[in-house]
Amino acid sequence: MALAISACAQGWAAENQPEIVEVIGQAAQLEQALEEQRRSSSIESVVHADAIGQLPDDNAAEALQRVPGLSVERDQGEGRFVRVRGLGSDLNSVTINGTLVPAPEDDRRAVALDVLPSELIQSLSVVKTLTPDMDANSLGGTIEVESLSGFDHDEQFYSINAEGSYDENTSQTSPKLSGSFSDRYSLGDGVDNFAFAAAVSWQERDFGSDNVETGGAWDFDNGPALEELEQRRYDITRERTGLGLNFDYRPDEDSEVYLRTLYSRYKDDEVRQASVIEFADPQGSGQSGTAEAARELKAREETQEVKSLVLGGKRHLGDWTLAAQAGYSQASEKSPDGLANASFAGNDDFINAGFTDTRKPRLSIEDSFYDPSSFTLDEVEQEKQTTTDTERNIRLDLTRDFYISMMPSQLKFGAKASRRQKDNDLDVWVYEDFDELGFTDDQLNMTNFSRGNTDYGLGRFGPGASPDAVQNLIGGLARDDFYDEEESRINDFDIDEDINAAYIMNTVDIDALRIIAGIRYESTKLDARGTGLNDGVFEASNTSNDYDHWLPGLHAIYQLNSKTQIRAAWTNSVVRPTFGQLFPGFVLDGDEAEFGNPGLDPLEASNFDLGIEHYMGRAGAVSAFVFYKDIENFIYSANVAGTGDYVGFDEALTSVNGDEAEVYGLELAYSQKFNWLPSPWNGFLLNANSTFTRSNARIDQFDQDLGARRGRDISLPGQSDVTGNLTLGWENEKLSLRLSSNYKSDYLDEVGNVLDKRYDFQVDDQLFVDFSASYFLTQNLQVFFEAQNLTDESYYVYTGSRRFNAQYEEYGPSYKLGLTLSQF
């Protein structure tokens, strides 16, 4: 702070210039976003950074939750995955500078956008109606990330940011540093024809959460009664590092060449203490009995990296425009030799074991449960995992401008080849039967591994275990003797996905009407290689699946007047199954089976959108859209025992295609800067939006007791009926205040039993309230404060009804204070 203030000392006495408010702040961000939305050929929502490179939130996911129709999935209280129009994040796609971003997790296509620090991003847009020149691989929308370019500012620009955050749950303070720079240079005979931009960000955050969960272990036929519960305490250090370097060269007014690079690293160091209680007999709230119990420890370091490199250019040749782009992106996740689980079994059964409160179970049990000497090390599981997802693509686009009967028209056609490879390598070691290895009971007693009582906000917890002590014990053993070949080989896989695409589209302006019509063709070739286990014998599992799609599209935009336009669109999309659903491995054990399904058909959708937009000057707009999606081949988990190759099986778990599903809804948005009101009321800004969504899908499976198929109707997993945002802001030349809220209603997370909805997992509704304030100490130095999760919102999953816990987790609020020094 001292360095920043001294650098700006001469500006202390000066008043801020009026133009600051025109390029910085909430209204400026919103106005730029609305202008891009207005010009777009698609139905699109945009979040734009202001002139000093600031998005309205800390990462890409949390910035996007403010726009119409979007909400986020949170992990440990932080926004990660984005849902569009209430639909699950695996049904959307993410691009950075025009190239697809792969997913670091081994089983998902969804990209966790908190991996991208906000400092690296110039704008975020969500395209909800795809034109034929776009990849057709999203149902809710395509999230497009654009990084900073040197041509985004007229002159030299830099911004330096330093901040500290405080987590109320852990009472820990964490630092963050970031900066960005851009400038233009003259090469050859040109003037300001070369631009360079760079951004860097580093953050280390210490935080934690408290959890109690049952995993849905309720017996509803005899009670309801609970079979087991688990208490968990998480302590996490999360480190983010981001770097972006971008180069733009415009040798003349008809040519452009660019290179976009981005690197992001996300490191999670997590220690999880757990106590697991299994009742001898299922029991209700307030009852007591005997129970088995164990103490468990998980300690792992997980590093995710995203790398993106995009090289492209554009050339105007008379009425023709040629554009070409090559993209490379890779996402990886590495977990080196972590403790997947260390289990300390109770020496004896515990008495007087019970719980109260079915929503947030609170354990009651005899005092010996809280004595570490009551537990002995029973088993240690160690894992090492590497997942890599690589995308390479090249595309070519040709555009010709011409007239049809004096009507401006544009023909565009092109092709794209994409090559994607997803591979997973897992190694597992299981250490058990320690007494046979020569260890005594005294050596294995938990008192030798205890690191004192665990700080747990949901009640009494008791002792926790030291990761270092456990690692020291197994470190002296011959690791190769404990290698779990079954778990290691079954979970290894390689999946290649090759997509070739071509399209043609034409845009024509007929007075106030613009029509965009075209068709896209995509062919997909999938090769999945893995290993299966058939009654103790390993078998190679190699599967191929080829399919193609013709995807027509029609867009219409009609200008009612200079401020109002009507949009309509008919589009078609294809969403491929997740990699967890395509998993080629399998386990066949007697009359039980569990396996992936590489032969799944992709989800296909016909989408219809109709709406109106009205723009009202300074950051002002109101819009309303209705949408309908007709979906085929949606995917869900099911037990296929009793059918096909599994007639003689009691259980055969896999993913299957459903028949049809539908999604429909209404999306409303309103924003306004009240600059016509007298001071100070002219500083107020309102931004509100809400989306109402409904979906219906039919699932069924073979009922072996009845000898026939049975089923029921469900909402699509991940779909919230209501999402909404409300932001109240106020700003002048120096001060900016913002109070924002984000709401999403409950949604189906997982089908627990196809034939019994009582065992479905449902995520409860959530309302998050955040506050932010910033003040210009000088024209270039800004101090800011943020408070997140002021409502102390928790994450709650229930089964059957809200009364019955599957998982409850709370995080507490967090606070941030920082300085930004900028020149623009």
TrEMBL record:
Protein keywords: Cell outer membrane, Membrane, Receptor, TonB box, Transmembrane, Transmembrane beta strand, Transport
- Indicate how the chain sits in the lipid bilayer: Multi-pass membrane protein
One family from Pfam that matches here is Plug
Where's the TonB-dependent receptor-like beta-barrel domain? 346-790
- CDD domains registered for this protein in UniProt: ligand_gated_channel
Recorded hits in InterPro entries, A to Z, give: Beta-barrel_TonB, Beta-barrel_TonB_sf, Plug_dom, Plug_dom_sf, TonB-dep_rcpt-like, TonB_rcpt_bac
Could you tell me which residue ranges the TonB-dependent receptor plug domain spans? 38-142
Q: Where in the cell is it found?
A: Cell outer membrane
Q: Which PANTHER family match?
A: PLUG DOMAIN-CONTAINING PROTEIN, TONB-DEPENDENT RECEPTOR-LIKE BETA-BARREL DOMAIN-CONTAINING PROTEIN
Q: Which family does it belong to?
A: Belongs to the TonB-dependent receptor family.
What protein does this entry describe? TonB-dependent receptor
